[in-house]
Amino acid sequence: VVLREGICPGLTEDFINALHSEDIKTVEDFVSCNPEELAQKCSLSYKALVAVRRVLLAQYTAFPVSGADLYQELLSSTAILSTGSPSLDKLLDSGLYTGEITELTGSPGSGKTQVCFSVAVNISHQLKQSVFYIDTKGGMCVNRLLQMLQTRTSNMEEQMEALQKIRVFRAFDVFSLLACLQHLRFNGLQQASVGGGSVKAVMVDSVSAVLSSMLGGKQNEGMSLLMQVAGELKMIAKDFNIAVLVTNHVTQDGNGCLKAGLGLSWSHVPRTRVLLQRVEIPGVLSSSLRTATLTKSSRQPCHLVEDFDLCNLSEERNSVTGKRKLESS
Amino acid sequence: MQRTVPSLPLAPSVKVKLLHAGFQLATDLTDMSPLQLCKAAGISQEEAVEVLQMLRCDTQSHQERAATESITALDLLHKEQAQGSIVTFSSRLDDVLGGGVPVGKTTEICGAPGIGKTQLCMQLAVDVQIPVCFGGLGGKALYIDTEGSFVVQRVADMAEAAVKHCTLLAEDTEQKQALEELTVEKVLSSFFLVRCHDYVELLAEVYLLPDFLAEHPEVRLVIIDSIAFPFRHDFEDLSQRTRLLNGLAQQLIQIATQHSVAVVLSNHMTTRLLNGQSKLVPSLGESWGHTATQRLILHWEGSKRLASLYKSPSQMEATIQYQITVQGFRDAPDKLRPTVELCAVSSLSGNHSKRPRMEDQS
């Protein structure tokens, strides 16, 4: 933080100029210096230096919190949002957790956007909370949201009310995405909760579309931008108790196996990762069946597999699951 | 609106110097003069002026401002319903696509050589010009040809068939009036054709596209036939190719959304070897498959031509049969009915008569 006059009493312009002559420009530089030495070099009074230092430390330090307090806070503020699909809920240990980032990856056409739609519709209709949907690929199709709502309720008013609760943002490059996330963090989310109805979920579909063109080659900004996006998403999730759902693409590694895009650095960012795949049934050209595999989780053992049908996401596929698992393993 | 310095679209070297000097938020920079900034951060005068200009609210880039504006799904629904789609003259394909090729989204058409990708592209370029009272969009088309497979005589044939079709359908005076203006000459003159010889020209053309569309707001369709050709040969650095393609795709979807145009891309097929078996898959790699909003794969089955919708945010996957006739892209004849009716009965006003769909037995 830059040292400026007025950020604390006692910091006048002369004071700052004297400090500048010793090459101390930020608060960090100031508090890491020894006040005695500084008093001698700058000809400033020792008392004034110590007073300013105390005020700055009080203003800018982070304070430790005990584990017990943290646990209590977590219990009271975390909510679990059901995805609307019993199979996916089983995989995610009953749903999306607020305060965390969950990631969906899969090949094109594997159903990532459909699952995002289903979750958004479930949260806005069933749980009656607001959802923010950041679309980076143009895949948002409200007709499909309406179709999904129509299977849940035939009441037009309820459908329109649920659609009112979903807000769509469009950002097609990484700087627009960062502008959007920072706008949400600093203003948007507070405004939304003041207006009535809290925001419980933020979805970004997809994060890899804007980041993959910035990574690699001779570009040296890619990783920094990736980490900034990650930082913004995490801060939004933690500070506002929101469940963040992102989608990612897949690439093929050397052996032809599918792995999630954006590399190792991004793989540390989401808390939970799910891989969606098509089910290849010999003899049928295209089916709506998909499998979801848990590839990273801090709560469940990895490599759990669940089946679901894209057409009926709210139906549980119990009878077929046992057989499918045997076939796929 | 607060922004952190690292998230601003500035050159990385300038950002590093600003961060070193201790500037963390954009608000730290706003009340400084260029000279002060120069001294504080150690950057050149021009760079300082550039930074401060970028921060002034009125020069904030259009995209970034748009990104912070949101719209509720309800309002978006009304907007979506007002946007039309471009019919393909094959009512089965239109059903599968949900009315036709959607405006405001990118559609990718993949297929083996000779299956009819260029035919479909040319048909769409003609169909977008059908007047609004007949159920079309009444707009112009921009055709970016990278392969040199565009043939004007074929488009003239298709235009003639389309005009004849509309003549058969014309009922009320408004339609008859619109029909007088719809001639083959007018259709051919409402076409913008661009020939790109390599990927650099293609990238430049897409970069200039927003300005072109701002000057010609009646353009409703942009076709790139094909996007695979310039990128497939003579490209040594494959990772650079992926990056360029991803950037290109994002630019195209931004253009499609902002200017309300439909973007159609055609792609080739390549062979993938997996476990000793070969399979035909769309070319340009795995990550390219994620970039188009909708994907249509055209393939052969014996002597039949089939079209499968492989990826779509709103429509279910389905496969239908089609054929290419003298008039253009049409439905394949129904086996159940001996009299072949080439869509002359289906009205173009959006309510397609539901004919019994034949499920393909593979």
Structure summarized in a few sentences:
The complex is a heterodimer of chains A (329) and B (362). By secondary structure, chain A is α/β, with parallel strands linked by helices. Chain A has helices at residues 13-21, 27-31, 35-42, 46-60, 67-77, 86-91, 112-125, 142-152, 156-164, 174-194, 207-211, 222-240, 263-267, 318-328, and strands spanning 80-81, 96-97, 101-106, 130-135, 166-170, 199-205, 243-248, 250-252, 258-260, 272-278, 289-296, 305-309.
Question: What does this 3D model show about the protein?
Answer:
Chain A: Belongs to the RecA family. RAD51 subfamily. The complex is a heterodimer of chains A (329) and B (362). Chain A is of the alpha/beta class and 329 residues long. Chain A has 14 helices and 12 strands. In chain A, α7 packs across α8, α8 crosses α9 (156-164) and α10 (174-194) runs parallel beside α12. Chain A is elongated, with a radius of gyration of 25 Å. The termini of chain A are far apart. The model of chain B is unreliable at 336-362 (pLDDT under 50). In chain B, β9 and β10 form a beta hairpin. Chain B has a 9-stranded mixed sheet with strand order 6-5-7-8-4-11-12-13-14, with helices on both faces. Chain B has a two-stranded antiparallel sheet with strand order 2-3. Helices cover 40% and strands 21% of the residues of chain B. Chain B has helices at residues 12-20, 26-30, 34-41, 45-55, 62-68, 73-82, 91-97, 117-127, 152-169, 173-181, 184-189, 199-215, 229-232, 238-259; strands at residues 70-72, 85-86, 101-102, 106-111, 140-145, 191-195, 219-225, 262-267, 269-274, 277-282, 294-301, 304-311, 319-325, 328-331. β5 (166-170) of chain A pairs antiparallel with β1 of chain B.
